Amino acid sequence: MNEFKKYVDRKCALRFMGFRGEAPDSFKIILEECEAALCEEATPRSVYVVKDKEEVSDILIGNDIASHLSDSCKVAVFAATLGSRVDALISRYQSIDVTKALVTDAEASAAIETYCDEMMKEISSRTRSSLTSRFSPGYGDYPLGIQKELLGLIDAERKIGLTSGESFMLAPSKSVTAIIGLSDGDTVREADTCGKCEMKDTCAFRKEGDRCEI
């Protein structure tokens, strides 16, 4: 079995596609085909550095990130990606099968979140610290324009092939950058991503008392 299979979260991917509950049997064949292709193409990699908050104060801009890290003595500057081959796979599907392109895109979005969760467990174990949730550029008043500084701090382009363009979008696209707070206590602060999301007033998940889990 491909090692990446453990990061595939079909339930989460289905939710991204608007399904509630199980997908119809006729759709499961497409899900399985796309999962298999994703597992073949994904090359997950991550990198992080742990710093005292004062050392990276120049990239901790805004009230929201300050509040998120208020109980943390250190921070992990973190990045992860599924690799450029996943982008290429989605692009190929877009030219031959739009349904598979949408399915693979949703599966990859779910998988990068699962992968990041697993890497956070590793960070917690290695540092023997309690972690906050991930807080990414673009949440609340934490500026998206900080991407390049964040990537440069952890040498992400050289180490995992992750870059940011003029619009501050990540390439490869199925990637995450984040600040994570570390502390010696048991308190874990969750990012209020729903409350700060631009889609909060029209989000179908919120209307049903749910969340997209991003």
Describe the protein's architecture and organization.
The chain has helices at 10-16, 25-41, 63-68, 84-96, 98-127, 147-153, 156-160, 193-196, 204-207, and strands at 45-52, 74-81, 130-131, 163-164, 170-171, 175-183. The chain contains 9 helices and 6 strands. α1 (10-16) packs across α5 (98-127) and α4 (84-96) runs antiparallel to α5. It is α+β, with helices and mostly antiparallel strands and 214 residues long. It has a 4-stranded antiparallel sheet with strand order 1-2-6-3, with helices on both faces. Strands 4-5 form a two-stranded antiparallel ribbon. The protein starts with 9 loop residues before the first helix and ends in a 7-residue tail after the last helix. Mean pLDDT is 89; it is low at 196-209. The radius of gyration is 18 Å and the shape is globular. It is 43% helix and 14% strand.
Draw up the topology in text.
Layout: H1 10-16, H2 25-41, E1 45-52, H3 63-68, E2 74-81, H4 84-96, H5 98-127, E3 130-131, H6 147-153, H7 156-160, E4 163-164, E5 170-171, E6 175-183, H8 193-196, H9 204-207
Antiparallel strand pairs: 1-2, 2-6, 3-6, 4-5
Strand percentage: 5-15%
Radius of gyration: 18 Å
Mean pLDDT across all residues, rounded?
89
- Low-confidence sequence ranges: 196-209
Order of helices and strands: HHEHEHHEHHEEEHH
Going by helix content, strand content and strand pairing, the class is alpha+beta
Q: Helix coverage percent of residues?
A: 40-55%
Number of strands: 6
Distance between the termini: 27 Å
Give the overall shape: globular
What's the number of helices? Answer: 9
Oligomer: single chain
- Main-sheet strand order equals 1-2-6-3
Largest sheet: 4 strands, antiparallel
